[in-house]
């Protein structure tokens, strides 16, 4: 940097007291000294603020600065905010400025003090000084939230368009609007804004244009519809800069004309389809060609010149890829990107790889165009820069196809051996995905996964090995191959534990296929597995015990050895292992028929998404690698291989002790894969641990029984119940129907409880909802003394709601329980709840029970907080049927506003808006349904007027969807009446 | 080019200036600062100036003893962000006259308002160096020009 003349303004405008204080703190010999100094200064300032009545603006400014400095060093501030606010109302620029800077640092948009200063903002916006206006706008950009948007947006909009506003004010107005829209999505709608904003594009000032383009990009990225009128002007501006070369001189940066503005203009166009002739489509082609031509000069010059040109060039490339309509430019792009792969500058190599990934994913043709660079990309995997390696990996993943996959996977596997830890996990997932996606034969796939486990076992998540087990189970032709391959792999002295798990599972299931070979006789198989047993963790030991039990069933000659192992573990410290040992011991010595049923070969997995990869969401987008982890390990079992895994499995692995009670449910799911849903048929009553588990595992349901039905325990001798039609209307005098309806209604408001109960069957459920996805765990408990057989569940999707139930075992033993996970997705408004039909046989007669599942639209509602002004503004925009419905009803019990509020807010997820209606007997509420059938979120506005004396209630509901309005009406009436 | 935050870190890892454009909790802020400090300071020279971090991208550049670090969206234009950083450095340099770390420590409030002239709400506001410097010097004139300003320190 060149100039060394100190700016005279700095000395003139600095505050000596502040400078000294900062020096003092910097010179503190230790942290303690610094803290002491800070405490002393805080006390002093506090005292001054409190007691010095004559404190002047300069002092206040200085003290506030000191406080801000201490705050920046990490000290808590519990005072001083008010003083900063006082500075705002000063008429002196110096004081106002410090006040605004301090608030920008000390407050955030949720701060309780913000409403207090909105008025100061307003006064300064109305002031005649550009500088005061700018200060207020800057503060709004920094900390403005929803309130600011509500109160000040008309004023700011006016300032943006006014001819009298200076460029300084205008550009800040544009960004203030952007900020407010971010905090208040949808606040800037095209209908009322597009014309005005587009008119500002005629502004000659490049600063204003830059800010305005930021705003337009933000708006278009939210939803491009409605902002098209800006396209011709944006193209015209590009032409002016790039082709006509008309621009203010001071906006030339290292011989490039305002590269920032160019980038923004190009980026804006990426949100729209290719512009047609009338919008300037042809001109855009010329502009892009010109950008390519001028980038030639990027080979020489300062780094800033090159960066600026290349920044524009990469933005143009992204636009070309997006438009995908100019074969000449696409061809040029592919050549240019190929060249970038080998340049010296790391930044350009990085960006080249990144752009090439986009390019490859465009179409078949484009991916063929870059095939020739595959070897160069493979080389980049060995670059010394992890950012480059990540991009290369991503690109290779995208380039891979049927023909190249074996080669690429082999390269990736060899890279895995030396790859650093930061990238291994991503690499493992990608290899597993490619291997599955392009496997021409599954034996190759099995080989790849085993190699993954051997090379980087620690990074192979459970999902990956579950997946390989599943594929082997479902493909008979590779079972023998898989068994002999894992058997061979197990010969190695240092096996990864994951390999032992896969080995245990596969040999337990398919070991018999290789048992004829004396080298892998049953005894040899058992010995090789058992030689690893002691080195394994508890979950693996538990799994191996199951394998041994399976061995007994397949190879009776192993009975003695395995039972020996079970005996040794009968009082093992880990409850799960102890339990398995005891049960398997009993199972293998008491009843052969039972053993054969229980330990039979696992049937093929049923998986609706069998074609989708283990972690396809994951690996397709390596960008999300961080959030992936959580997806896979937590909520993931909605999706893929985990579909087959009961939720108990994971906690079990993590914490044996605390989860014994849930583990109890998985007893006969020997591999912890949730495959057999049968309940334990024998209860080894000599085990106190186990009894307790059983009791606990049933407890949630039984507790609920009491709470939801009081003492009324059903003594109904269950007839065939057909409650499907409409339990609400048919709910006449039949006590069973009343009870079913009560349970259903209650569960519409809460997440867990009993749905149905009679003397034979109890159905309980737990539910979870998260942004459009839901998960239900249904519990079927047999309360009778006989097994319920041919147990069968029918559960169909309805319009707007897609359900995916998992299959369950056909028998529930007496006093046992089955679980059935159901995942579902909400895609649009739905009016009715789905029906579940339960069929089973009792000794003597078939039973059918149809129930409504308590999945109602309100489960998907999200909060919508509105101020009074906002509510009425939106309320007024909708009126008349069918978007508006009004209904009057008489409540069956005395109206209690408090409980109404609770039902609405907590039960139906509708946001009750306080202080909108001053009448305490009325309720105003709103809610947001994010998955409207038109692809848009839908807001609903609700008004409830009550007359407690007459016990009457009037509902008014307005929303942009007639279906939604009607559904909300029905819900409210059913729960409030 | 939406900035989520901007950090100025010394080579020793001390934070010299932070500006948060997206809402993060105080805990997150200090964790992010630490995490990013480690990543950036330990990165060997000659590698590229971009790092992928969480769902964001970190773009940084070292000037003498200071690292200028920006966190922005993944699809932002990396090179142009680098030039925004350079633009900021040039303006600081012109204002302070061969800017050094100490200038930013003692005049932290100035550094903030210079930054505000350049970047607002996480978006670039003004790209002309001349305009930015003119606006700042006009404001400085207002500072000293105000009537009744005290020049005596207690």
TrEMBL record, chain A:
Question: What cellular component GO annotations does this protein have?
Answer: AP-2 adaptor complex
Q: How does it sit in the membrane?
A: Peripheral membrane protein
Span list, region Disordered: 610-697
Q: InterPro entries under this entry?
A: Adaptor_Complx_Large_Subunit, AP2_complex_asu, ARM-like, ARM-type_fold, Clathrin/coatomer_adapt-like_N, Clathrin_a-adaptin_app_sub_C, Clathrin_a/b/g-adaptin_app_Ig, Clathrin_app_Ig-like_sf
Residues forming coiled coils? none
Q: Please list the residues that bind a 1,2-diacyl-sn-glycero-3-phospho-(1D-myo-inositol-3,4,5-trisphosphate).
A: 16-17, 58, 62-66
Cell location: Membrane, Coated pit
Pfam families, A to Z: Adaptin_N (PF01602), Alpha_adaptin_C (PF02296), Alpha_adaptinC2 (PF02883)
Under the GO molecular function aspect, what terms does this record hold? clathrin adaptor activity
Q: What does this protein do?
A: Adaptins are components of the adaptor complexes which link clathrin to receptors in coated vesicles. Clathrin-associated protein complexes are believed to interact with the cytoplasmic tails of membrane proteins, leading to their selection and concentration.
Indicate whether Coiled coil appears among the record's keywords: no
What biological-process terms (Gene Ontology) are attached? clathrin-dependent endocytosis; intracellular protein transport
Entry's family note: Belongs to the adaptor complexes large subunit family.
**Feature: compositional bias, Low complexity:** 611-623, 638-694
Q: Which organism is it from?
A: Dictyostelium firmibasis
What is the protein name given in its UniProt record?
AP-2 complex subunit alpha
The UniProt keywords, alphabetically, are: Coated pit, Endocytosis, Membrane, Protein transport, Transport
Q: Give the Clathrin adaptor alpha/beta/gamma-adaptin appendage Ig-like subdomain domain ranges.
A: 745-854
Task: Point to the regions of Polar residues compositional bias.
Answer: 624-637
The answer to whether the entry has keyword Transport is yes
UniProtKB/TrEMBL annotation, chain B:
Q: Which SUPFAM superfamilies match?
A: SNARE-like (SSF64356)
Write the record's keywords in alphabetical order, separated by commas: Cytoplasmic vesicle, Golgi apparatus, Membrane, Protein transport, Transport
InterPro entries in UniProt:
AP1_sigma, AP_complex_ssu, AP_mu_sigma_su, Longin-like_dom_sf
Q: Where is the AP complex mu/sigma subunit domain?
A: 3-141
Can you supply a Gene Ontology BP term from the record?
Answer: intracellular protein transport
Cell compartments where the protein resides? Cytoplasmic vesicle, Clathrin-coated vesicle membrane; Golgi apparatus
**GO cellular component terms given for this protein:** AP-1 adaptor complex; cytosol
Q: Care to name a GO molecular-function term for this sequence?
A: clathrin adaptor activity
* Predominant localisation class: membrane
Keyword field contains Transferase: no
Which superkingdom, per the lineage?
Eukaryota
Q: Which family does it belong to?
A: Belongs to the adaptor complexes small subunit family.
- Spell out the PANTHER family in the cross-references: ADAPTOR COMPLEXES SMALL SUBUNIT FAMILY (PTHR11753)
What name goes with this protein? AP complex subunit sigma
Could you tell me which species this protein originates from?
A: Dictyostelium firmibasis
């Amino acid at each position: 940097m060149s100039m060394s003349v100190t700016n005279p303004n700095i000395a003139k405008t600095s505050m000596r007291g502040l400078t000294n204080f900062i020096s003092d703190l910097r010179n503190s010999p230790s942290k303690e000294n610094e803290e002491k100094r800070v405490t002393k200064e805080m006390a002093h300032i506090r005292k001054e603020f409190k007691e010095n009545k004559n404190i002047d603006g300069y002092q206040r400014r200085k003290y506030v600065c000191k406080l801000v400095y201490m705050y920046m060093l990490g000290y808590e501030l519990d005072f001083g905010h008010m003083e900063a606010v006082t500075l705002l109302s000063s008429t002196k620029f110096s004081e106002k400025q410090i006040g605004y800077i301090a608030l920008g640092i000390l407050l955030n948009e949720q701060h309780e003090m913000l409403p207090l200063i909105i008025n100061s903002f307003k006064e300064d916006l109305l002031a005649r000084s550009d500088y005061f206006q700018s200060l207020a706008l800057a503060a709004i950009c920094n900390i403005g939230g929803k309130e600011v948007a509500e109160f000040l947006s008309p004023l700011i909009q006016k300032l943006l368009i006014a001819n009298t506003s200076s460029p300084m004010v205008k550009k800040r107005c544009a960004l203030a609007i952007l900020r407010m829209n971010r905090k208040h999505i949808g606040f800037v709608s095209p209908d009322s804004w597009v014309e005005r904003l587009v008119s500002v594009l005629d502004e000659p000032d490049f600063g204003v244009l830059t800010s305005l383009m930021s705003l337009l990009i933000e708006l278009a990225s939210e939803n491009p519809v409605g902002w098209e009128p800006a396209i011709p002007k944006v193209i015209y501006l590009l032409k002016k800069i790039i082709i006509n070369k008309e621009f203010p001189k001071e906006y030339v940066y290292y011989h490039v004309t305002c590269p920032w503005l160019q980038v923004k203009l190009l980026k804006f166009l990426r949100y729209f389809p290719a512009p047609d002739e009338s919008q300037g489509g042809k001109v855009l082609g010329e502009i892009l060609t010109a950008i390519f031509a001028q980038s030639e000069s990027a080979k020489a010059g300062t780094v800033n010149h090159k960066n600026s040109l290349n920044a524009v060039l990469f933005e143009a490339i992204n636009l070309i890829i997006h438009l995908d309509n100019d074969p000449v430019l696409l061809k040029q792009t592919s050549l240019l990107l190929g060249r970038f792969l080998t340049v010296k500058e790391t930044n350009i190599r990085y960006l080249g790889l990144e752009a090439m990934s986009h390019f490859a994913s465009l179409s078949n043709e484009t991916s063929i165009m870059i095939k020739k660079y595959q070897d160069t990309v493979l080389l980049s995997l060995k670059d010394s820069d992890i950012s480059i390696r990540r991009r290369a990996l991503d690109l290779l993943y995208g380039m891979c196809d049927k023909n190249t996959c074996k080669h690429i996977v082999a390269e990736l596997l060899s890279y895995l051996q030396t790859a650093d830890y930061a990238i291994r996990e991503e690499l493992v997932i990608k290899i597993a995905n490619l291997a599955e996606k392009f496997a021409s034969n599954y034996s190759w796939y099995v080989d790849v996964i085993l190699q993954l486990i051997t090379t980087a076992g620690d990074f192979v998540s459970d999902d990956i090995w579950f997946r390989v087990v599943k594929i082997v189970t479902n493909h008979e032709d590779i079972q023998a191959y898989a068994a002999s391959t894992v058997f061979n792999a197990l010969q190695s002295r240092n096996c990864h534990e994951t390999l032992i798990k896969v080995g245990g599972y596969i040999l337990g299931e398919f070991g018999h296929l290789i048992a004829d070979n004396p080298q892998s006789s049953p005894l040899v198989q058992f010995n090789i597995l058992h030689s690893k047993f002691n080195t394994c963790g508890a979950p693996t030991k538990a799994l191996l015990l199951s394998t041994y039990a399976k061995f007994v069933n397949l190879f009776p000659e192993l009975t003695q050895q395995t039972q020996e192992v079970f005996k040794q573990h009968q009082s093992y410290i880990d409850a799960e292992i102890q339990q398995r040992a005891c049960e398997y011991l009993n199972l293998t010595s008491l009843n052969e028929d039972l053993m054969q049923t229980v330990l039979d070969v696992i049937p093929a997995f049923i998986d609706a998404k069998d074609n989708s990869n283990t972690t396809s969401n994951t690996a397709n987008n390596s960008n999300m690698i961080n959030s992936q982890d959580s997806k896979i390990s937590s909520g993931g079992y909605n999706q893929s291989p985990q579909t087959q895994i009961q939720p108990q499995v994971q906690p079990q692995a993590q914490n044996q002790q605390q989860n014994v009670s849930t583990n109890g449910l998985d007893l006969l799911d020997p591999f912890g894969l949730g495959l057999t849903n049968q309940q334990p048929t024998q209860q080894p009553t000599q085990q106190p641990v186990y009894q307790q588990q059983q009791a606990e595992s049933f407890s949630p349901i039984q507790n609920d029984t009491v709470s939801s039905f009081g003492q009324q325990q059903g003594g109904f001798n269950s007839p065939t119940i057909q409650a499907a039609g409409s339990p609400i209307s048919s709910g006449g005098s039949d006590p069973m129907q009343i009870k079913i309806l009560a349970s259903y209604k209650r569960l519409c408001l809460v997440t867990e409880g009993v749905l149905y109960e009679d003397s034979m069957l109890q159905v309980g459920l737990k539910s979870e909802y998260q942004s459009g996805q839901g998960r239900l765990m249904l519990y079927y408990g047999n309360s009778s003394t006989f097994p319920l057989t041919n147990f069968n569940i029918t559960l169909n999707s309805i319009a707007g709601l897609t359900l995916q139930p998992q299959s369950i075992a056909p028998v529930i033993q007496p006093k046992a329980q089955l679980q059935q996970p159901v995942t579902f997705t909400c895609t649009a408004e739905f009016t009715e709840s789905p029906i579940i039909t339960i069929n089973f046989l009792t000794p003597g007669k078939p039973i059918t029970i149809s129930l409504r599942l308590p999945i109602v639209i309100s489960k998907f509602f999200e909060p919508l907080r509105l101020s009074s002004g906002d509510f009425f503004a939106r309320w007024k925009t909708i009126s008349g049927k069918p978007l508006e419905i009004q209904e009057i009803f008489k409540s069956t019990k005395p109206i209690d506003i408090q409980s109404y509020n609770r039902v609405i807010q907590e039960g139906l997820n509708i946001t009750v808006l306080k202080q909108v209606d001053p009448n305490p007997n009325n309720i105003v509420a709103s809610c947001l349904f994010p998955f409207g059938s038109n692809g848009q979120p839908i807001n609903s506005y609700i008004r409830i007027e009550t007359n407690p004396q007459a016990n009457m209630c009037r509902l008014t509901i307005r929303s942009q969807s007639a279906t939604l309005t009607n559904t909300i009406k029905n819900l409210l009436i059913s729960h409030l009446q | 080019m939406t900035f989520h935050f901007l950090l100025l870190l010394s080579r020793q890892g001390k934070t010299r200036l932070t500006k948060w454009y997206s809402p993060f909790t105080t805990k997150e802020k200090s964790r992010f600062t630490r995490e990013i400090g480690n990543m950036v300071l330990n990165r060997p020279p000659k590698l590229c100036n971009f790092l992928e971090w969480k769902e964001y991208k970190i773009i940084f550049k070292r000037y003498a003893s200071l690292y200028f670090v920006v966190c922005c969206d993944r699809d932002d234009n990396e090179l142009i962000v680098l030039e925004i950083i350079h633009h900021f450095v040039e303006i600081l340099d012109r204002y302070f006259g061969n800017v050094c770390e100490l200038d930013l420590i003692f005049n932290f409030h100035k550094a903030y308002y210079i930054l505000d002239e350049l970047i607002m709400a996480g978006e670039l506001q003004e790209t002309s160096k001349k305009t930015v410097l003119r606006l700042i010097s006009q404001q400085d004139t207002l500072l000293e020009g105000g009537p009744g300003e005290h020049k005596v320190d207690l």
